Amino acid sequence: MIFDTHLHTKVSADSEMQITEALTRARELKLGLIVTEHMDFDYPDPSFIFDPQAYFTEYASYRSESLLLGVEIGMQESCYEKSRALAEENQFDYVIGSIHLLEHTGDIYYPAFYGNRLKQEVYSIYFKTMADSVKQYSFIDALGHIDYIARYAPYAEPEIYYHEFAEQIDEVLQALITHDTVIELNTRRLGDRSVIKSLAPIYKRYYDLGGRYVTLGSDAHKMVDIGSHFTAAKELSEWCNLKMVYFKNRRMQYV
User: Fold this and answer.
1) Over the Cα atoms of the chain, what is R_g?
2) What are the extents of the domains in the chain?
3) Which of 3, 70, 159, 232 could form a disulfide with 246 if both were Cys (CB 3.0 to 4.6 A apart)?
4) Nearest partner of 151 among 98, 101, 189, 199, judged by Cα
């Protein structure tokens, strides 16, 4: 069974989706699910954390072979110890590490973060932060949405092109391989063929450097987005010779 390994329900501050809605959609699509609620310690908005025990208790009756419980950790140097303790002390099936903030207070989501700075400067900081975080957060199972910044950056051309940031992207990919961390193929933007074209060289480079596995994640916050663009994601994975996997009990499972 293919799993959508990245989605958020009402436990996350930016989602109102009910777990029953997610399960209904998953049954329609014949997908397994891993719920990955936001845990962003030291985030300017304290609502982006949750009580792990309350989470497990509330969703215990839904947990099954096809509904697994994970977490998406916002990686920052300042909250490394808290994040590691969270992952080690709780029975998550899967831990995603993601970059949501840069320079401690700058949320990539908001245009104000970018100011008048050029794309080259901001994206270089983004990839350097990501590489450093992957090296530090060696306990995570996968790196989430490497192209997250391209969703929100207010540039005329926000897309990530491997040839423009080859050295910085290689550092990220090599860190993943060194620490046995899988890369996520986030499917949110794959409805646009130009996005697939820009991402393909990155995932192909990951394979060339020695990476072999990829998780598929819609990053859905609404029922309708679960499993979005998975056909395109499977095609891209196959083109890059990457095997689709998911995690259960923090162990890699083959699709």
Assistant:
1) 17
2) 3-254
3) 3
4) 189
Of residues 203, 199, 187, 232, the one with CA closest to residue 6: 187
Given the candidates 3.40.50.1000, 3.30.1050.10, 3.30.565.60, 3.20.20.140, the CATH classification of the domain at 3-254 is 3.20.20.140
Dist CA 21 CA 7 (whole Å)? 12
pLDDT in tens, 26-83: 999 999 999 999 999 988 888 899 999 999 999 999 999 999 999 999 999 999 999 9
Please tell me the predicted confidence (pLDDT) of residue 169.
98
The two beta strands, 106-107 and 101-102, are: antiparallel
Residues 6 or more apart in contact with residue 37 via CB below 8 angstroms: 8, 9, 11, 12, 50, 55, 70, 71, 72
Predicted confidence (pLDDT) per residue in 17-28, tens digit: 999 999 999 999
Strand partners, 37: 71
Can you say how many angstroms the Cα of residue 195 is from the centroid of all Cα atoms in its chain? 17
